[in-house]
């Protein structure tokens, strides 16, 4: 599906990303997530890259562009408009056949046997009661449920099932407290296969967590 309105174009690192008001505008600070993922790809095992809650696809596309790895990229989002823009952006910025855009709920987007060397996750992390603070953003793109963590937990379940041994995931959250919750839950669950290995904070903008297998 493509969009039916004239898009805007934003610079995102060295890429040009099309979007409109129905899709979350690319955030300049999240270039750092692409850069971190690209760094991890240089040491990652063989395998494709996955982006969850991909929106217009900019974070995953820039990561692959920076890494120059020749890997495949799968972009997953439940929103048809976002997927339309992701396809347009992928067709402009990466060679044909490299990117697979899937419109799907996270839980059903992947086949059981699919595994990924690096996973990028950009779940909405704003608590429902606070979405009114961001009137220019599409509610569905930022609403993370009562505590801002509802979609993040689903992303972590997908990561646990589909991350290759020796692989890495870079998960975007809003606050250090949210990362603490993830770290505490994983550390306190004997059946959990993941751990928070590192974090990088970007002040009021957000925080990135590096998640790996134990």
TrEMBL record:
<feature type="domain" description="Methyltransferase small">
    <location>
        <begin position="40"/>
        <end position="125"/>
    </location>
</feature>
<protein>
    <submittedName>
        <fullName>Methyltransferase</fullName>
    </submittedName>
</protein>
<dbReference type="Pfam" id="PF05175">
    <property type="entry name" value="MTS"/>
</dbReference>
<dbReference type="InterPro" id="IPR050320">
    <property type="entry name" value="N5-glutamine_MTase"/>
</dbReference>
<keyword id="KW-0808">Transferase</keyword>
<dbReference type="InterPro" id="IPR002052">
    <property type="entry name" value="DNA_methylase_N6_adenine_CS"/>
</dbReference>
<dbReference type="InterPro" id="IPR029063">
    <property type="entry name" value="SAM-dependent_MTases_sf"/>
</dbReference>
<keyword id="KW-0489">Methyltransferase</keyword>
<dbReference type="GO" id="GO:0032259">
    <property type="term" value="P:methylation"/>
</dbReference>
<dbReference type="GO" id="GO:0008170">
    <property type="term" value="F:N-methyltransferase activity"/>
</dbReference>
<dbReference type="GO" id="GO:0008757">
    <property type="term" value="F:S-adenosylmethionine-dependent methyltransferase activity"/>
</dbReference>
<dbReference type="InterPro" id="IPR007848">
    <property type="entry name" value="Small_mtfrase_dom"/>
</dbReference>
<dbReference type="GO" id="GO:0003676">
    <property type="term" value="F:nucleic acid binding"/>
</dbReference>
């Amino acid at each position: 599906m493509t969009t039916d309105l004239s898009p805007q174009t934003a610079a995102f690192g060295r890429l040009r990303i099309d979007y409109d008001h129905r899709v979350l505008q690319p955030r300049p600070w999240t270039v750092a997530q692409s850069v971190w993922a690209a760094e991890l790809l240089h040491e990652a095992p063989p395998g494709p890259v996955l982006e969850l809650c991909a929106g217009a696809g900019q974070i995953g596309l820039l990561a692959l562009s920076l890494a120059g790895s020749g890997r495949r990229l799968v972009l997953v989002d439940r929103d048809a408009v976002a997927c339309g823009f992701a396809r347009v952006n992928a067709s402009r910025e990466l060679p044909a056949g490299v990117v697979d855009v899937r419109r799907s709920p996270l839980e059903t987007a992947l086949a059981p046997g699919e595994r990924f060397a690096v996973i990028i996750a950009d779940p909405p992390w704003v608590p429902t009661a606070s979405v009114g603070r961001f009137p220019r953003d599409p509610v569905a793109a930022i609403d993370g449920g009562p505590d801002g963590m509802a979609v993040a937990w689903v992303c972590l379940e997908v990561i646990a099932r589909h991350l290759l041994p020796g692989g890495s995931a870079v998960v975007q959250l809003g606050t250090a407290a949210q990362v603490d919750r993830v770290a505490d839950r994983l550390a306190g669950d004997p059946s959990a296969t993941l751990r928070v290995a590192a974090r990088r904070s970007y002040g009021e903008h957000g925080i990135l967590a590096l998640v790996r297998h134990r």
